[in-house]
């Protein structure tokens, strides 16, 4: 089959890729307008693109399934074959990769990191910024010669990018050697999709624009035995105007508390020491369940489970309620670290971003958290160079970073994402200016990080030991309760345990130390 025939015979079999076009029609009229026009429109007539749809969908039941099985004719299909998954992006994607790895292994596949050895290669992609997408397209280009060498090799693209119509079309047009494209809601169909890709002649495309049900009993091949991820909810209904996630991951769907608690218990019984609860908007947990039960309630139940550390990510300031603060303040296995993306320190920019809080409201929340948890470390995400962000508005971000005293921040230059409202704004800020702002912001964050680290010199901290340091196998590495990386000398037998380490040197992003006796008082 030549490329043209292949293209023509390819078809999208299940629904269509992210159906965002119609939602965007009402936004066309603000195309290429200034931020003032945008602001006015935003305050008067703007409706978040799919929120109404999402709210309608809320009324439809999300079904929970406990009956995932691999069909008998497929559970041996991977015998003697190897899979490889390359993961881009966030922890949610990393965890999806663990699920897909689990499915492959139940089908008899073995894992490999060598593209030459692999019988199937999946790229689990991220769409959050343009450079994430460019990386994936670069990798697709690199894989082409492998496919020419070995026509039986299956190459698939999954994850957030495959939920974008433009990406699917680009692959169809420019990379017809790709065998398989499937979306974030279709992971449970992996066995069938692999079979179709193996035995069919067409490109297999399985992308649902509507979010799926919750499938509870998917297998997971977890990456480590010390730290584990647990999804507590899927999707996001916030529709920040710059963000593609609500389109690629669908509407918010929470897992039932008992299913989450059971998974955490199971991980505790297996000896895991740290759990990270995952959700794109993790503290909106429970809002869709009508159980009057939120993340605070869930954390309160998880506190009683014999697992030393429980984290959660990523939270939205708007949903950070008093109940959650009250439970976190109880300490124990609740950690002294809160990642609380602020995105900007200027209330007008926050408004155009659709963040639903002002600078003052964010600062008030920080005050509340600090009052309840005086030792907590705060970290954040920030976008610089949002369309038409003025120099003064950027200065507000700088001053907020100082005022809160963030000890780390993921900082990004705004990247226009097709189909999002902000992508329609004209922008009068040059890329050079944006880069300059990013540099200044990073310098401030680095200085604050280094300053925060200094206080640990001479102190003793508790470290969950994860393994050898990446740079030096003689040295062990792990994290404190406040998420500070510690490199230290100590016995290998301490890997997987929590030990006390005396810090002798603070760097900007890590601490150096020596493991000490149990008797020293822990800071
Ligand atoms: N451009 C730049 N950064 C973005 N983020 C999300 N969307 C964009 C975008 N279009 C950042 C936000 C978010 C983090 C995961 O990625 O800061 O919190
Ligand atoms: Fe994106 Fe987070 Fe906003 Fe949801 S809350 S739209 S994931 S930035």
Automatic annotation (TrEMBL):
Pfam family, one: Radical_SAM
Single GO molecular function: tRNA-2-methylthio-N(6)-dimethylallyladenosine(37) synthase activity
Cofactor, how bound (note): Binds 2 [4Fe-4S] clusters. One cluster is coordinated with 3 cysteines and an exchangeable S-adenosyl-L-methionine.
SMART domains in the record: Elp3
Chief localisation class: cytoplasm
Catalysed conversion reaction: N(6)-dimethylallyladenosine(37) in tRNA + (sulfur carrier)-SH + AH2 + 2 S-adenosyl-L-methionine = 2-methylsulfanyl-N(6)-dimethylallyladenosine(37) in tRNA + (sulfur carrier)-H + 5'-deoxyadenosine + L-methionine + A + S-adenosyl-L-homocysteine + 2 H(+)
MTTase N-terminal domain span: 81-199
UniProt binding sites for [4Fe-4S] cluster 1: 90, 126, 160
Residues reported to bind [4Fe-4S] cluster 2: 236, 240, 243
UniProt cross-references to Gene3D superfamilies, sorted A to Z: Methylthiotransferase, N-terminal domain, tm_1862 like domain
EC number: 2.8.4.3
Cellular compartment(s): Cytoplasm
Domain Radical SAM core, chain residue ranges per copy: 222-451
PROSITE patterns reported for this sequence: MTTASE_N, MTTASE_RADICAL, RADICAL_SAM, TRAM
Keywords: 4Fe-4S, Cytoplasm, Iron, Iron-sulfur, Metal-binding, S-adenosyl-L-methionine, Transferase, tRNA processing
Chain intervals with Basic and acidic residues compositional bias: 1-10, 20-29
Spans annotated as Disordered: 1-29
Source organism superkingdom: Bacteria
Parts forming coiled coils: none
TRAM domain span: 454-517
Sequence similarity: Belongs to the methylthiotransferase family. MiaB subfamily.
Alphabetical list of NCBIfam families matching this protein: miaB-methiolase (TIGR01574), MiaB/RimO family radical SAM methylthiotransferase (TIGR00089)
PANTHER family: CDK5 REGULATORY SUBUNIT-ASSOCIATED PROTEIN 1, MITOCHONDRIAL TRNA METHYLTHIOTRANSFERASE CDK5RAP1
Described purpose of this protein according to its UniProt entry: Catalyzes the methylthiolation of N6-(dimethylallyl)adenosine (i(6)A), leading to the formation of 2-methylthio-N6-(dimethylallyl)adenosine (ms(2)i(6)A) at position 37 in tRNAs that read codons beginning with uridine.
Subunit (UniProt): Monomer.
Protein name: tRNA-2-methylthio-N(6)-dimethylallyladenosine synthase
Organism of origin: Halobacillus naozhouensis
